[in-house]
Amino acid sequence: MNPLILIVEDETALVTLLRYNLEKEGFRIAEARDGEEALLVAREQKPDLVLLDWMLPLLSGIEVCRQMRRMPETKGVPIIMLTARGEEGDKLRGLDSGADDYITKPFSPSELIARIRAVLRRARPATEGETLRYEDLVMDLASYRVRRKGRDVHLGPTEFRLLRHLLENQGRVFSREQLLDIVWGQDVYVEPRTVDVHIRRLRKALNGTADTDLIRTVRSAGYALDRAQ
Question: Quick one: 74 and 42 in the same domain?
């Protein structure tokens, strides 16, 4: 079955344009016109990806994104934010709230389609039956679950891919640029500082108050899954 895209946008003309271009590419479409409806539709229809406007009635796109990342039914759904706010601080705020990508209005339909396909490729389920481990950390790729010391660790799709790559290459240091190419893909432009945002979110999710930080920062070099000595 073709992927289902949830469009969360209150501008009728833009919704019509998005629906036309996405359906032409074979995607199925669901719609929501405000933040509260977006959360309801996301829970009920379980879309494969959400196109989320920043400025929405009732709940902002930022708050919708945060709540989706907290809900078990939607925590792993990729989110692309659409917004007229193009400043770097706004982009980082959007990513910090849990978005996987960020597109500034106005944008071309072809760029949007390319970004959607790239995010969907990165979010494909992992190989069934495979488990990755490091000390007290366990990643089950079949069930898309991460546990540390027996407790569930809730990750967004980008943090999951980032942790998977680090688990598959334990001890090896990767620069921001290498992580961008491997985790985000070479066909999507993302600023290097984005890696820092997602590493910070990953650390927050993995580390309880008494847990050792398993991600080592190597100054001027990058990051590794390797306890600091």
Answer: yes
Partners of 80 in beta bridges: 51, 101
CATH code at 205? Answer: 1.10.10.10
SS3 at position 216: strand
Give the pLDDT score at 69. 87
CA distances from 47 to 31, 33, 143 (A): 10, 16, 18
Shared domain check, 47 and 18: yes
Return the number of other C-beta atoms located less than 10 Å from residue 208's C-beta: 11
Continuous segment of H or E residues that includes residue 95: helix 88-96
Domains contained in the chain, number:
2
Closest CA relative to residue 82, chosen from 110, 57, 61, 66: 61
- If you average pLDDT over every residue of the chain, what do you get? 84
Range of the domain at 210: 131-225
Q: Where are the beta strands (DSSP E) in the chain?
A: 4-8, 28-32, 49-53, 79-83, 101-104, 131-134, 137-140, 145-148, 151-153, 215-218, 222-225
Chosen domain end from 69, 92, 122: 122
Helix (H) or strand (E) holding 64: helix 61-70
Same domain, 115 and 185: no
Mean pLDDT calculated for residue range 159-188: 83
Bridge partners, residue 53, by sequence? 82
**Closest to 18 (Cα-Cα) out of 119, 113, 86:** 113
